[in-house]
Design a protein that fits this description.
It is globular and about 55 Å long. A ten-stranded mixed beta sheet has the order 1-2-3-4-6-5-7-8-9-10, sandwiched between helices. The protein has ten helices and ten strands. The chain has one domain: Alpha/Beta hydrolase fold, catalytic domain (Rossmann fold, 3-Layer(aba) Sandwich), CATH 3.40.50.1820. By secondary structure, the chain is an alpha/beta fold. This is Alpha/beta fold hydrolase. Keywords: Hydrolase, Signal. GO terms for molecular function: hydrolase activity. InterPro entries: AB_hydrolase_fold, FrsA_esterase, Peptidase_S9_cat.
């Protein structure tokens, strides 16, 4: 995979965010861990795969030349005592992606954090929705915060096959956000210090990004993430509601029983050996939306692959975190400070 800070490629593979699969670390299509990009000064590349990658797969994303640039600050949405909030757009693999950015007051450059929000119906989503507490707190702590809307959300460009192809396109949007920050040339932004923070579905985007683009971020945080097995997410969230998209997904890609190789190919745990960044996972013990067991499985698999992963169960908290959210953010900020400051 090649990473470039200039977006010149037309939108190509219409990929999607599959958040898991039937394979674990060391599964049949896993690849060797690459040397981190920052250690060599080169863009990270994947090792050759033993079999051709399905065009809808994490392996296909690993091979893609990812681009991100054109970060543009638009209207001022708010001015606080600590930061200014802007509407922004950037380019990710040729697609325009909207979002919001909080820039701290004072003299930069400031480290940056890309936020990857959880699932919100794109038909009702408004720009910047999903992680407002984190946006405010991190900006007050001296981080430039770029909250990506993802494709098909708010003012972003359209990718009509994204849901059918398991939403892997969101991973492209996050990679593009980091590249656009690095390429921005803005004096407030330190493009050499970038973290990634996702919650719920966005936690799955974090997992995918870490194995597709190792070395792009300095550290990553996931709150209450979804399963790393895409079929488990489908069975948990979509099938019980009778979502007609399930039949379309299985018609196009096959069921896990019919095509296990496809479902392994969209699991981040299949490629756990590629991850290079430290990862913090926080998950409420009373979460009845995304079971804590999902994070325990992910953390165990990454650790088995020799990765720096910390799982912190948050006692009594549900999916969105309530009374202990502030304390959880103390932990998150200490983690980010160790790796970004």
């Amino acid at each position: 995979m090649r990473l470039r800070g200039t977006a010149h490629t037309a939108a190509g593979l219409l990929l999607a965010v599959a958040l898991g699969c039937t394979g674990g670390a060391g599964d049949g299509v896993s690849e060797a861990a690459p040397t981190p990009a920052r250690a060599t000064g080169e863009s990270p590349r994947s090792a050759p795969s033993p079999t051709p990658a399905d065009p809808v797969s994490l392996q296909a994303l690993m091979r893609r030349e990812h681009t991100g640039s054109g970060l543009r600050l638009g209207a001022v949405l708010d001015r606080t005592d600590a930061y200014t909030r802007y509407a922004v757009t950037y380019e990710a693999n040729g697609l325009t992606i909207s979002g919001i950015m909080n820039i701290p007051r004072g003299e930069g450059p400031f480290p940056a954090v890309v936020l990857a929000h959880g699932y919100i119906d794109p038909d009702v989503y408004v720009s910047g929705q999903g992680m407002p507490r984190e946006q405010d707190r991190l900006a007050r702590s001296g981080y430039v915060v770029l909250h990506t809307d993802y494709r098909n959300h708010a003012r972003s460009g359209k990718d009509p096959d994204n849901d059918l192809n398991l939403r892997l396109g969101y991973t492209e949007d996050v990679i593009g956000a980091a590249l656009a920050l690095r390429d921005s040339g803005r004096p407030e932004i330190d493009g050499d210090r970038i973290g990634l923070f996702g919650r719920s579905m966005g936690g799955g985007v974090v997992y995918n990004t870490l194995v597709v683009a190792p070395g792009l971020f300095d550290a990553a945080v996931a709150y209450a993430p979804v399963s790393t097995r895409p079929e488990e997410n489908i069975d948990h969230f979509q099938r019980p509601d009778g979502d007609p998209l399930v039949a379309e997904i299985e018609d196009r890609h096959g069921t896990p029983a019919e095509d296990p190789a496809f479902w392994r190919g969209v699991s981040p745990l299949t490629h756990a050996a590629r991850m290079t960044e430290p990862l913090l996972i926080q998950h409420g013990t009373a979460d009845d939306t995304c079971p804590l067991a999902w994070s325990r499985e992910a953390a165990a698999a990454f650790r088995k692959a020799g990765k720096d992963v910390e799982l912190r169960p948050v006692s009594g908290e549900g999916h969105t975190f309530g009374p202990k959210w502030a304390a959880s953010m103390d932990v998150t900020e200490a983690f980010l400070a160790r790796h970004l400051r």
